[in-house]
Design brief:
Strand content of chain B: 25-35%
Distance between the termini of chain A: 46 Å
Oligomer: heterodimer
Structural class of chain B: alpha/beta
Helix content of chain A: 40-55%
Number of helices of chain A: 15
Order of helices and strands of chain A: EEEHHHHHEEHHHHHHEEEHHHH
Order of helices and strands of chain B: EHEEHEEEEHEH
Radius of gyration of chain B: 19 Å
Number of strands of chain A: 8
Largest sheet of chain B: 6 strands, mixed
Shape of chain A: globular
Structural class of chain A: alpha+beta
Distance between the termini of chain B: 35 Å
Helix content of chain B: 10-25%
Radius of gyration of chain A: 21 Å
Chain lengths: 365, 171
């Protein structure tokens, strides 16, 4: 019988692409024989815009790259500028950064896990549970910096403002509550037949291939490579907290999901330590508003919820960066997607894309 | 803690292996000749002592006289980071070899550099624009591509000249 390949566009407007992202799948029957990624629908050319603004004015852009994890985006950028200028934030700011980033990691991973569960077919129930805790975390962000989503909280040389007195009791309450919620999630999701049936053995990425494809974050760790910037190249107050790197064994979609769940537990563990160890003192050092770093270049990186988020800055001594490059984990983690999607069905490709956990604002920038 | 390998050290090792391949070296990074780039990178990846198996980041910088392509390499085992650079001098048609044969992770990042900076990567299996559409005029990250009519700098105008007076301090 004569057959011919059939092309299906998943996206740009499709609930499973989590933003305006398009997969162009060529099918032979139900099997994918070729997958192409089409992106750029959310491209705002932030790297060019940033060359026309001062270093401080650029901080809000870093909220809007990965808008699901704005705090970590802020931190990666200010760390790069601090490296460039030779500024160091005071002790209390370093701890506030750890607290905010771990709260953000928990919020971002709960979104990732909830949305992934949606992709698998556990329709809407897990994500509603996840959103409940995320709301409380965003309330804390609002308390600290005034904004919930695009926080704009970190500053060159510290953070924008100290936390109000209500923050610590509220954070304590939340951190005491989260382990119970994690128990609930684990009971609900880990052995969930829908998730296991859809994700185990699907989208296997071997460790050597993961490294060759430059993937990072839970995707790399799901493949069994224990690589976490918080341990490998620690920043802020991370050298003083203890936690474990969560790794998977099989490198499939299920392991990436497991790694995220385990990292949420570790985030709670870090938060418990950080809330206890937080010192008093100033939260920022004075830095000129239009800071002019010396001529040179710097690469600052952190472990964002999605992987290694880095900022490569080149300064010509002026008030605006000469070059501002974002090493975006969402974008680079897409590198192995076509090869993972080849040979599987469309429904599996949806789950594989969900396990990569992209944020299109960060893919397109 | 990641040890950042000095560009001088990288240059020394590369020079021993491939004499005459290093153009310039500073502690910030080693600049190698474009025609031996693939060999140098294969050596950096496969040498058991160096073992840079992981390409962290690839990007291009428009330095006005030339384009500089910057590679950040990571050795997972030894936890070392190195910066390697290569220059393309042709303003109209800058071209450097593609590193997709060494690190597949260069695939999308080279497409990005081609799209936004207009640097061509010879040997790339699928060199298409990634964010902008085919037919978009120019490459926006080049310094001579002016995003605003007349090259206005709307953000900086709010801090004219920055005399260092009233703007100092965070108030």
């Amino acid at each position: 019988m004569n057959t011919e390949p059939f092309v299906v566009n998943v996206g740009p407007q499709h609930p499973s692409t989590h933003g305006v992202f398009r997969m162009r799948l060529t099918l032979d029957g139900e099997r994918i024989i070729d997958a192409d990624m089409i992106m750029g629908y959310l491209h705002r050319s932030m790297e060019k815009l940033a060359e026309e603004r001062t270093y401080t004015q650029n901080i809000p852009f870093t909220d809007r790259t990965d808008y699901v994890a704005a705090m970590t985006g802020n931190l990666a950028y200010v760390l790069a500028v601090e490296k460039l200028c030779g500024v160091e934030a005071p002790e209390r700011a370093q701890w506030l950064r750890v607290i905010m980033c771990e709260l953000q990691r928990f919020a971002s991973h709960s979104m990732a896990v909830g949305v992934f569960a949606n992709d698998c077919g556990t329709w809407q129930t897990p994500i509603m549970h996840m959103f409940r805790e995320r709301e409380k975390i965003l309330d804390l962000f609002e308390m600290a910096g005034g904004a919930r989503l695009t926080t704009n909280y970190m500053r060159i040389g510290g953070v924008s403002s100290d936390i109000p007195p209500e923050f610590m009791p509220a954070a304590d309450r939340l951190v005491k509550e989260l382990p119970k919620r994690m128990d609930e999630y684990e009971a609900l999701l880990l052995g969930n037949e829908i998730i296991v049936a859809r994700s185990r053995g699907v989208g296997v990425l071997l460790p050597e291939r993961a490294l060759a494809c430059s993937v990072s974050g839970p995707m790399l760790r799901g493949s069994g490579v224990a690589w976490d910037i918080r341990k490998a190249d620690p920043y802020a107050a991370y050298p003083q907290v203890e936690f474990e790197i969560a790794v998977g064994t099989n490198g499939d979609v299920y392991d990436r999901f497991l790694v995220r769940m385990a990292e949420m537990r570790q985030s709670i563990h870090i938060l418990e330590q950080a809330l206890e160890m937080m010192p008093d003192g100033p939260v920022s050092v004075p830095v000129p508003l239009a800071v002019r770093p010396p001529v040179g270049e710097a690469y600052g990186r952190i472990e964002s919820p999605r992987g290694e988020l880095g900022f490569y800055l080149v300064s010509d001594g002026g008030p605006a960066p000469f070059r501002f490059h974002i090493r975006s984990p969402s974008f680079i983690n897409l590198t192995p997607l076509p090869e993972l999607a080849k040979g599987v069905t469309v429904s599996d490709a949806i789950v594989i894309l969900g396990s990569v956990d992209i944020v299109v604002g960060e893919v397109d920038r | 803690m990641t040890e950042v390998l000095s560009g001088l050290e990288i240059a020394h090792r590369v020079e021993q292996r491939f004499p005459g391949s290093v153009v310039e070296a500073s502690p910030e990074g080693a600049i190698v000749k474009a025609d031996v780039l693939v060999e140098v990178c294969t050596y950096l990846r496969d040498d058991p002592e160096l073992g840079f198996h992981y390409l962290v980041s690839l990007t291009a910088v428009d330095c006005l006289d030339y384009f500089e392509i910057v590679y950040h390499l990571q050795s997972i085992q030894a936890n070392r980071l190195a910066v390697l650079k290569v220059r393309a001098h042709d303003r109209e048609e800058p071209e450097v070899p593609s590193l997709t044969s060494v690190w597949w992770g260069a695939l999308l990042q080279e497409r990005e550099a081609y799209d936004l900076m207009g640097v061509r990567f010879k040997g790339h299996p699928d060199l298409r624009r990634v964010f902008l559409w085919e037919g978009f005029a120019g490459h926006p990250l080049r310094k001579d591509w002016l995003g605003m009519p007349g090259g206005l700098m709307p953000g900086l105008e709010r801090f004219p000249g920055d005399p260092g007076g009233e703007l100092e301090g965070r108030g």
